## 1
Amino acid sequence: MGRPALALTLNPTNPKPGHNTVPILIGTSTLGIVRMEWANAMQGMVAPPNWAVSRACPTGYRTADAQNMIVDNMLRGNFKALLFIEDDTMPPAET
């Protein structure tokens, strides 16, 4: 039995997406075990009001495979930017 297909949870944070928004995908490849400080830093990031932020976090894949899956979803989606944040770095709030 193979691994299940990647099911990305894409949740734009902009409540009124429109033609003037910047759709960005934030991708993290992880095995699923992250520190609480990292999770708090990710939750604490503030998106500009005209950005529609979506997050992709394939779990249980090797880093290169997970990043390829994220890039594939970015290219197939309606995103203008891709930001990789690894699970071993802590982004500052102004990211």
## 2
Amino acid sequence: MDNFNKGFVQIPHKIGNFLPLINLTAREVRVVLLILRLTYGCQRRWAKLKFRDLQTVKIAPSHAGKVVKSLLAHSVIIQNGKTKEYRINEEYLS
């Protein structure tokens, strides 16, 4: 139980309060949580993701593109230009 006290990811209340209210698939939730960890958890504005990196959250590279495109289409996440950098769309949550 001591391991739970070693750190935390601090996210804004508006994100923590709104995420449970939007209808996401299990895969989409895992990608959103990974992006939250890589942005707010690492104190960065953007998370650099390669589709094969999503294997860490049990998403096969063959499904990764579909999941990311779905989140982009629903404006839950946004992309930094044409790069492989993503973040939570805070405007969507407003």
## 3
Amino acid sequence: PAFAQEGFATYYTKESCQKEGTSGVYTANGEVFNERILTCARPNRKDIGKFFAVYSPLTGRQIVVRCNDLGPGKKSQAKGNIIDLTPAGFFALGWRLSAGKINVNVQQVTE
């Protein structure tokens, strides 16, 4: 499939959010943050509530995640990071957290 955006994905956890100075407990839309579900953070507030297909060209796996949070930050975006996934999303794409960041293609899913 043709994807709209190519770049990197990283993962984020409750602990990493707390280290950055955010609560790590609640997402930008007010949900309780859950590392075990397929959700993501995107830099634009208008993406909250939308679904995105995330494809890993190296593993050949694709997942669909719902955006419920804001991120990655501007410094990370400048380095090519286009989406932050929960650990569940990282694992579902066939990666271990030790990879840190992975190449992905991301496209909004339209219903």
